[in-house]
Amino acid sequence: SYFIRLFKRRMGLPPLRYATLQRVEGACYLLESSDLPVYRVAETLGYDDEFYFSRVFRKATGLSPRAWRDRRAGAKPKI
Fold first, then answer.
1. Does the chain have fewer CB atoms within 10 Å around its N or its C terminus?
2. How many CB atoms lie within 10 A of CB 30?
3. What is the pTM of this model?
4. CA atoms of 31 and 71, how far apart (whole Å)
5. End-to-end CA distance of the chain, in Å?
């Protein structure tokens, strides 16, 4: 459709892919800044199914949400 072409031209991605990446970015923030369980992060971002959320997250980042959180936690400096 015309909207999709305009959106892709302006943003560089189709609308659905852009929205998914925005949700994954929000998940990364929540996983890093909170102790919420993965299923709560998924619910917060509008995913009804934790396993589907994990598949989407892994496709976008290359890691599962838990692995991403563990890797980020290990990267924080110890004081």
1. C
2. 19
3. 0.82
4. 11
5. 53
Question: What is the residue whose two structure tokens read 């980020």?
Answer: 72
Give the model confidence (pLDDT) of 3-62 as tens digits.
999 999 999 999 999 999 999 999 999 999 999 999 999 999 999 999 999 999 999 999
Q: Enumerate the H helices of 34-79 as residue ranges.
A: 38-44, 50-61, 65-75
Ramachandran sector of residue 62 (left: φ over 0; alpha: ψ -120 to 50; beta: rest): left
How far is 12 from 16, CA to CA, in rounded Å?
12
Among candidate residues 68, 64, 74, the one with its CA nearest the CA of residue 29: 68
